[in-house]
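[Automated response] Your request has been received and processed.

Submitted sequence:
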Amino acid sequence: MFALGEPLDAGTALACGLANAVVPSADLRAKAREAAEALTKRPAGSLRQTKALMRGMDRIAAQISRESGLFRERLQTAEARGAFAAFAERRKPDFSKMAAG
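Generated structure:
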C-alpha cells in the first residue's frame, strides 16, 4: 500500500495501527485535548526521548540501537523505580512529582 502510493482511508489507517482513533470532525478538538491530558500523566523524560527517536526514523537500524540504550538508561531513573513500585503495590504511578531526568 505504501510502496504503490495508494490512498489510505481512515478505517484502514486505524486497522493497521497507523492511527489511534477515527473521530468525527466535530469531536476532533475534544479528542485531541483528551490525548494531551493523557500525555501529561506519562513520564516526561520518556516522552522527550520518544519524540527524539521519532525525529530520526530515516536511520532505522541506528535508531533501534539508540532506543535500546535509552531504554536501559530509563530503567535507572526515578520514574522507572516509581513505576515498578506502583506496579508491585497494584496502584497507578504518579509521575507528576518526579523529575523528568
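Summary generated for your ticket: Residues 60-74 form the longest helix (15 residues). The helical segments are 10-15, 28-39, 44-55, 60-74, 78-88.
If you did not submit this request, please reply to this message.
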